[in-house]
Every structure is written in structure tokens, then in C-alpha cells.
Design a protein that fits this description.
With 347 residues, the chain is mostly beta strands. Helices cover 5% and strands 52% of the residues. The longest helix is centred in the N-terminal third of the chain and has 11 residues, at 3-13. The radius of gyration is 24 Å and the shape is elongated.
């Protein structure tokens, strides 16, 4: 249920009607328009004309933040970075009126900048349009995209040999994947549907729908949740038991929202995300959405171009896998003929 429907529901329960305008009553909702995480933000509801109203309720992202006050201060830490909807509902005899505004919260400081160093290079199937990549028990698991060519693979790292493969039905465009509790979770792009597979046999065990986001892009997990990107600046957290999207964070630097987040990997509690069509990886605080670092892999793309021709807007950097036990970070791209083990270097 979106916020508008939720608020209308409140009014119906109380036996009231929603009024968008009233000649005798006029109101104003002011908010702090832009601020940084950690600062306070102000919300002020004002009645300009009419008799005294019965009460006002103030919400931020569907959650009520006031009791009876018409002017309040909120702590931005409680909401994280991003653009947050502020709604006030004024209650007066036999009527209500709803007003909307917003508060945009930015990261408090600019992200750290990183370059890289190549530690090892391995073969990679140049026919693989890489969408998801994950390290597990000595092997890479990879999903590829495009309708009619999407597949799930188990890959030998040193040789790039595909040891096991499962094709997706031609009507689906495969996207990111992750391994959780001995199951493989695999997203599709625009079908609003994901699939679950047995880790050992690649047998399909079930499917799930996206209940809030529109598309599937990247997928990773923490100890208790699946973590999903949808091509916007939002990252969703799903319950592995029913795959419902429970909550989300927005991803922001100190200057702007970071959109087109694609393949994901959780590394030491931070979410690493490819920017689609850019040779960059964002290091994201998984609690509040702030971009804490940016890894520039422009020179890695130049290295790939020395040995093969790639289409700049299509065959892009995509694929991040982390071997926690041996502290190895692997990256590749769509149709790249190489997989790279890299070391992140602070600039």
C-alpha cells in the first residue's frame, strides 16, 4: 500500500472525507528542503485561515512523527540519506486535508577515492553477458543475461571453464544472483520475478515476485536478508523466507543520488555496487545509504580493450565477487574475456 492510499484509509476509518481544498480553511506545510545526515530538520504545519482545527498528524515516509504538535524537529540519522516524503493531515469538522512536502538528506562528506592494482588475471567466457557474480567454496557462480541467452553457471576460477550450467526460459532476461542458505536466488530484469535453485543440482525450487520494486538488477545478502538493486538509487532488503521487500535505503553522496546501481556484493558489512555503464564501484554504508568510497576502474577497462573490442555502452564493467577467507576481490564485465583479481588502493 503506498502512502497516499494509506492516508486515505485512515480517513475512511474515521468516517471522514478527504478534502483537497476548502474556502474557509487554508494551511501550509514547511520543511527543511535540503540538509546533511546528522543534522536536524524542521517540519512546520501552519493554519492560515479558518476556525481552530481538531488536530494534525505528521508523517515521514508513512510513519507518524508527531503526537499533537504542529511544529517538530526530526533527527536525520533516523531516516538515512535520500528524499523523504513529509505528509500532514489536518482534521477539522467532518473534513480532512492532506498536504505534502519533502526533505532531501545528503551524505555529510564526500566519498573517499580509490584506484586499483591487478594481482591476477584469469580467463573468462567472452560469450557470458555477466549479470551476477559470487564466490562460494572455491568456485565462482555466475548469471548471464539477454533473452534466450540467460544462464546460471558454476565456473572454475583458474581456467574459466564452465562446470555446470542451467539455461533460463527464453522469455526471461536474467539478472543478478546470490547464494544464501545453500540456495541460489536469481533475479530477472522486467518480469518482476525471481527464481530459487538448489545449489548443488541447479534444480529449480520455486519463484518469487517483487512486491514493491519494478525491476531486478543486482543481488547479494547479509546474515539475515537478501539485498537487491532495481536500477534506481534504491537498495531493497528482502526476507529470505518469503522474499518480500521489507525496507529500502537510498544511495547518496554529499552532492547527489547515485542511480543505475547494478551488480552488488557485500564486503565487510559494506555494499559494493557497480554503476551501470560507468567504470566505477560505489562503497555504500548498508545502514544509511551514504556513499563512503568510489573505486575508479577506468584503467581496467583500458586494459581489457588491449586484447578485445568491446561495445562501450553495452559490454561494460559488471560483476563483483569476494573471497572472504583469502581476501580476494574479483571483477569482470559483460562479454569480457578476462576475470581480474584486484587490490583496492586509496588515492
Amino acid at each position: 500500500m503506498n502512502i497516499s492510499n494509506h492516508l486515505i484509509f485512515i480517513c475512511l476509518v474515521l468516517g471522514l472525507c478527504v478534502s483537497c481544498s476548502d474556502n474557509n480553511y487554508k494551511f501550509k506545510l514547511n520543511t527543511t528542503q535540503k540538509t546533511t545526515l546528522g543534522e536536524k530538520a524542521n517540519i512546520k504545519f501552519e493554519q492560515l485561515t479558518g476556525n481552530k482545527i481538531d488536530s494534525v498528524q505528521i508523517y515521514v515516509n508513512r510513519n507518524r512523527v508527531n503526537t499533537n504538535e504542529s511544529s517538530i524537529t526530526i533527527n536525520t540519522i533516523d531516516f538515512g540519506v535520500g528524499k523523504h516524503l513529509v505528509t500532514a493531515i489536518a482534521f477539522y469538522p467532518n473534513k480532512t486535508k492532506k498536504l505534502n512536502n519533502s526533505i532531501e538528506i545528503f551524505a555529510p562528506k564526500s566519498p573517499k577515492l580509490y584506484s586499483f592494482k591487478i594481482k591476477n588475471t584469469f580467463p573468462h567466457d567472452s560469450k557470458a553477458y555477466t549479470q551476477g557474480l559470487e564466490y562460494h567454496n572455491g568456485f565462482l557462480y555466475e548469471t548471464t543475461g539477454r533473452r534466450g541467452k540467460s544462464s546460471l553457471r558454476k565456473v572454475e576460477i583458474k581456467t574459466g571453464k564452465v562446470l555446470q550450467k542451467k539455461d533460463l526460459e527464453k522469455k526471461y532476461f536474467g539478472e543478478g544472483m546470490t547464494i544464501y542458505d545453500d540456495k541460489i536466488y536469481w533475479l530477472t530484469w522486467q518480469a518482476r520475478k525471481g527464481f530459487i535453485y538448489n545449489l548443488e543440482t541447479f534444480e529449480r525450487l520455486g519463484s518469487f515476485s517483487y512486491d514493491k520494486s519494478n525491476e531486478g538488477w543486482g543481488l547479494t545478502h547479509n546474515k539475515t536478508e537478501l539485498i537487491k538493486s532495481d536500477g534506481t538509487n534504491k537498495i531493497w532488503f528482502l526476507d529470505p523466507k518469503d522474499q518480500k521487500e521489507k525496507r529500502s535505503i537510498q544511495v547518496y553522496t554529499n552532492k547527489k543520488a547515485i542511480k543505475r546501481l547494478n551488480e552488488l556484493e557485500l564486503i565487510n558489512g559494506k555494499i559494493y555496487a557497480n554503476y551501470w555503464q560507468k567504470p566505477l564501484i560505489a562503497e555504500i554504508n548498508s545502514n544509511d545509504g551514504t556513499v563512503e568510497g568510489i573505486i575508479n576502474l577506468t584503467d581496467l577497462v583500458k586494459t581489457v580493450k588491449k586484447t578485445q573490442n568491446i561495445v562501450d555502452e553495452d559490454e561494460v564493467l559488471n560483476g563483483i565477487a569476494f573471497d572472504k577467507e583469502n581476501d580476494r576481490l574479483f571483477v569482470t564485465g559483460k562479454h569480457w574475456n578476462k576475470l581480474f583479481e584486484i587490490e583496492i588502493v586509496k588515492q
